[in-house]
Design a protein that fits this description.
Pfam families: Abhydrolase_6. It comes from Paenibacillus thermoaerophilus. It contains 11 helices and 6 strands. It is an alpha/beta fold. α2 links the parallel β1 and β2. α5 runs antiparallel to α9. The longest helix has 17 residues. It starts with a helix and ends with a helix.
Length: 252
């Protein structure tokens, strides 16, 4: 494929719970050959509004003047759940799923795949009383001890400050994580998918990535060794090269 055609490929970025779209800026800067777009659901007032915002963004990119060019949907965490839903609706030509799961809430005996629902209910109850503490505790769990010592936590705060999402949107995002289950959709998602997942992720455990790789017909998994829940942070060049190489193989 020529460089001119390659440049028309669009990536729709869908961010994780409580995170601004700007968290992807360094990764997007490492992918100048693509056209980039986002979906802002930081002020959504319901789970349906979050899904609807992401769907509207994908449909708009499909219908614009470059609508015949490939559309990749890149989702991180909550955004990956949204990306799976959109792909099942035929709105993606390819998926890049980072720290993804098809179903966040799992029974206690499946702790290697997700979180028990009482954890999320507790977060919801605490949001109205001590929002900042809830966000602080959540962000602390995004990284391994080694990543924190290396400055990843402070780097995330600089790239993605707290306070961007409204209280309603935070609650809606948690409700979506509690209820969304894309597992029945996975066998029908025919587009190729690149999975990038930290092997020491405690938010979406690595077992969730293995499940996705097993159930999706065209999934490729990259294990981000010793990484937590933000496998792209401070690894933007490495992750960008993985995305470019994967997409070039698809084009070939």
């Amino acid at each position: 494929m020529s460089e001119g055609i390659h440049r028309r490929t669009t990536v729709l970025w869908l961010t994780g719970w409580s995170m601004p779209d700007a968290v992807f800026d360094p990764l997007r800067a490492a992918l100048p050959m693509y056209r980039h777009a986002g979906a802002d659901y930081s002020a959504a007032d319901s789970p349906e509004a979050i899904v609807g915002t992401a769907r509207a963004a994908a449909r708009a990119l499909r219908s614009d003047k470059d609508g015949e060019a490939p559309l990749l949907i890149a989702g991180w965490s909550l955004g990956a759940l949204l990306a799976l839903r959109l792909a099942a609706e035929g709105l993606a030509d390819g998926l890049v799923l980072m720290a993804a799961t098809a179903c966040f809430v799992r029974p206690k005996e499946q702790s290697g795949l997700g979180w028990p629902d009482p954890y999320l209910r507790k977060m919801l109850a605490r949001l109205g009383k001590d929002r900042e503490r809830v966000l602080e505790d959540f962000r602390r769990g995004l990284f391994t001890d080694e990543e924190r010592e290396a400055g990843c936590e402070s780097a995330l705060l600089a790239a993605a400050p707290t306070g961007v999402w409204t209280a309603d949107a935070l609650a809606a995002g948690l409700q979506l994580l509690r209820t969304e289950d894309c597992r029945p959709l996975l066998p029908s998602i025919g587009c190729p998918a690149l999975l990038i997942h930290g092997t020491r992720d405690t938010i979406c455990p690595y077992g969730a990535a293995l499940e996705l790789a097993r159930l999706m017909p065209r999934a490729s998994l990259i294990a981000a060794e010793a990484c937590g829940h933000v496998p792209f942070l401070r690894r933007e060049k490495e992750i960008a090269e993985a995305i470019r190489s994967w997409n070039k193989e698809l084009e070939a």
